[in-house]
Amino acid sequence: MLSLKNLTKSFGENTILRDISLDLENGETTVILGPSGSGKSTLLRCLNLLETPESGVLTIEGDSVDFAAGLSDEQVRTIRKHSAMVFQNFNLFPHYTAEQNVALAPVLNGKMGKDAAAQLARDLLEKVGLGHKADSYPDNLSGGQQQRVAIARALAVAPDYLLFDEPTSALDPELEAEVIRVLIDLAREKRSLVVVTHN
Predict the structure, then answer these.
(1) Strand ranges, E, within 25-94
(2) 163 vs 91: CA distance, rounded Å
(3) Which of 33, 54, 55, 147 is deepest in the core (most CB within 10 A)?
(4) Where do runs of H (alpha helix) occur along the chain?
(5) How does DSSP classify residue 130?
(6) What is the pLDDT of residues 151-166, one digit of tens each?
(7) What is the pLDDT of residue 151?
(8) Minimal CA–CA distance to 150: which of 96, 80, 77?
C-alpha cells in the first residue's frame, strides 16, 4: 500500500499542495485528473521524491518517511526503490538503443548482469509491442514508440508502483492509442499504476 498523510509542498510563497492525504491499494490503477497547473505532476513527483515536501508522511510498502524531519540519502533510496516514473517527454538516453535504455537500470542497480538485463530488456520490449525495435535509437522511433520504451524501462526495475506523468499528452491521437493499450494491459495484470492526466 502507498499512503500519504497531510502532505504539503510549496514553491517559494506558492503552496501547491496543502494537507493532501490519500491511500492507494496494491494492484489498482489510480488516475489523478485535473487541469494544467493544479499540482497533479507535483504530487506524483513527491511520491518518488523528485520533489521534497515540507511536511507530511509518505509510506510505501511499510517504509515511511516524515518530511518535516528531513530525509537522509538512505531514506530517499529506500522510498525510490518502490516506484518507477514514466515521464511526459520520455527522457530516453538518445545515444542508447531501445534495448540499452531498458537494460541500463537493472545493471546499475546491481540487480543483474549485462546478459540477463539484455534478455529482460528484449522480453519487456516484446511485451510493449516493440521487440522488432530493440536495436533502434530514440530518434528513429515515433513518440508512441519512445513512450512504450520508457514504460518497458520502468518495468525493468520491477517497481511496486508505476508512476505516469501525462504519458500521452505529447502524442498524436493514433500514437496515444498505442500507449493506452499498454496501460490497459498493465492494469489487467493488476499492476499498481498511478496516472496523472488532464484528459
Answers:
(1) 29-33, 55-60, 63-66, 83-86
(2) 14
(3) 147
(4) 40-47, 73-80, 98-108, 114-127, 143-155, 173-188
(5) -
(6) 999 999 999 999 999 9
(7) 97
(8) 96
